[in-house]
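Morning, I've got a small favour to ask if you have a moment. I've been staring at a protein lately and its backbone has me curious. You're getting the sequence in one-letter code plus the fold written as tokens. I've dropped the whole record in just underneath, so have a look:
=====
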Amino acid sequence: MQAQDSNQDKPYKDFVIGDQALIKGGLKGIDTISGELRDKTGFSVYLSLVDKTPSYVKTGATLSDQSLKQAFENRRIYEDKVIRRLNSPYAIIFFYKQDYKISVRSDGGFLDPNELLEDYAYPYLPLNNEKPIPKEEKIDYSLFNLYSAIVQRSAKHYGVKVESAFNPSDKPEGIVKWLLYLMLIVLVGLFLYGTYKSKQRKKA
């Protein structure tokens, strides 16, 4: 038992923590990309995969059926346990599959977890088992998109380029904004063309 406790205090060797079967692919890519980032900057990006939020028994209370508040507290307890074993500086994505929760923790002040989640994870999470892309694949995509954004933000902060990394997808709001700009340009162009043709007809 003492040997097990001692082992639990050791830093994680790999960048993917927990049940790797919870997502389908790309785990080798994560080790490659995070390894390159860590070698160049010393900054590590981890991914923690949990099937369901762990339960912790508090003094005088048994958490068999977790309320939303208790579940949030339990996730924080679990995350704090994991973070104690991470090498600093770091960022880590926590994914709880059955509870459909994603969180980001980091000791890098240049990262904004809420902004990263809002821009690169939440927009791509499926609301239901929509087609043609299965729900499982969309969850995987949102995780890898978020992960890529964190790697790219970290690399930019340290002034390096991670050759093995890929660029995250633009948030939908950004795409919509550019489409609106494009439509506006087309409309202005049509208006100017119509005005020009009208003047040409009058001269004729």
In short: The first strand starts at residue 16 and ends at 18.
